[in-house]
């Protein structure tokens, strides 16, 4: 038997060195998201030969300073934490980053945090299909679930005891989310969507060939029409010469 030496962080399943090498070679600033049972922590770091430098960091506990009364690890909290992190990164002069989660799984909470970073104005490449919908990010699913439990008062109070203790009715989750979102970004949801540039669809080679063929047909038909119009003029000139 032969002994194959592996690095300790590979044995502990903590680091994906292929992804890590790609980030270092590309010299990209990267965003990391850690979601625990109670909180969310996110950072934007810059890799250097001597180690990673923290450009900006945000924690879901900071949301209380902006008036947040909801859960600290829900989808809305993940989005708001990413929004706060992106705002801090822009203030430090970092406008581009890539998402790096290492050996962790890409969950909806990580996706919500990445969407918050992107909505803040930081250019972070991520597919729109992998992001949760706006209703889930605003906590509409929590409000709907609370409304369904409204008849059972005991279960309603036990499920949402923390929210009720903070003075927040779970049915008001979406409106409370929009208030805190406006305090962090200074923009309403409608203003942010209007400010985003619309992506122009790239023309495929087949579409370009179709357009060129249509242009050729149009030019040929117009030239034929011009030739037909010129024929009677020539015949008139010939008639005048005979006279």
How do the strands and helices of this protein lay out in sequence?
Blueprint (H helix, E strand, L loop, with lengths): L7 H4 L5 H10 L3 E6 L4 E9 L2 E9 L15 H17 L6 E2 L8 H12 L14 H4 L2 H9 L4 H7 L1 H5 L7 H13 L3 H7 L9 H38 L1
Parallel strand pairs: 1-4
Antiparallel strand pairs: 1-2, 2-3
Helix pairs in contact: 3-4, 3-9
Low-pLDDT regions: 197-202, 224-243
Measured on Cα atoms, how large is the radius of gyration?
30 Å
What is the CATH architecture annotation? 2-Layer Sandwich
CATH fold name: Nucleotidyltransferase, domain 5
Beta-strand percentage range: 5-15%
User: What is the residue-mean pLDDT, rounded to a whole number?
Assistant: 82
Series of secondary-structure elements, N-terminal to C-terminal: HHEEEHEHHHHHHHH
Can you identify the CATH class? Alpha Beta
Helix fraction? 40-55%
N-C termini distance: 113 Å
Count, helices: 11
Main beta sheet, described?
4 strands, mixed
The number of E-state strands comes to 4
Q: Strand order, main sheet: write it out.
A: 3-2-1-4
| Structure class | alpha+beta
The geometry reads as globular
How many domains comprise the coordinates? 1
Any overview of this molecule?
There is one protein chain. The protein has eleven helices and four strands; from the N terminus they run ααβββαβαααααααα. Helix 3 packs parallel to helix 4 and helix 3 (about 75-90) runs parallel beside helix 9 (about 175-185). The protein has a four-stranded mixed sheet. By secondary structure, it is α+β, with helices and mostly antiparallel strands. About 50% of the residues lie in helices and about 10% in strands. A hairpin with a 2-residue loop joins strand 2 (about 40-50) and strand 3. It starts with 7 loop residues before the first helix and ends with a helix. It has one domain: Nucleotidyltransferase, domain 5, CATH 3.30.420.100.
């Amino acid at each position: 038997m032969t002994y194959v030496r592996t690095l300790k962080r590979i044995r502990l399943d903590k680091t994906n060195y292929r992804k890590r090498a790609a980030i270092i070679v590309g010299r990209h600033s990267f965003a990391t998201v850690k979601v625990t049972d109670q909180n969310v922590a996110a950072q934007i770091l810059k890799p250097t030969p001597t180690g990673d430098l923290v450009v900006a960091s945000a924690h879901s506990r900071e949301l209380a300073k902006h008036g947040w009364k909801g859960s600290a690890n829900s989808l809305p909290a993940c989005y708001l934490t990413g929004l706060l992190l992106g705002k801090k990164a822009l203030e430090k002069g970092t406008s581009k980053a890539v998402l790096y989660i290492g050996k962790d799984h890409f969950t909806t909470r990580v996706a919500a945090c990445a969407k918050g970073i992107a909505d803040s104005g930081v250019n972070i490449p991520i597919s729109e299909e992998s992001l949760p919908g706006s209703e889930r990010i605003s906590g509409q699913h929590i409000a709907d679930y609370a409304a369904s439990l409204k008849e059972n008062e005991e279960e309603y109070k036990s499920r949402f005891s923390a929210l009720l203790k903070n003075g927040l009715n779970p049915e008001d989750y979406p409106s409370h989310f929009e208030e805190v979102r406006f305090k962090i970004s200074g923009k309403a949801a409608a203003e942010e969507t209007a400010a985003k540039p619309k992506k122009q669809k790239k023309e495929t080679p087949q579409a370009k060939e179709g357009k060129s063929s249509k242009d050729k047909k149009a030019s040929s038909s117009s030239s034929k029409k011009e030739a037909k119009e010129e024929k009677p003029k020539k015949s008139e000139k010939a008639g005048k010469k005979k006279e």
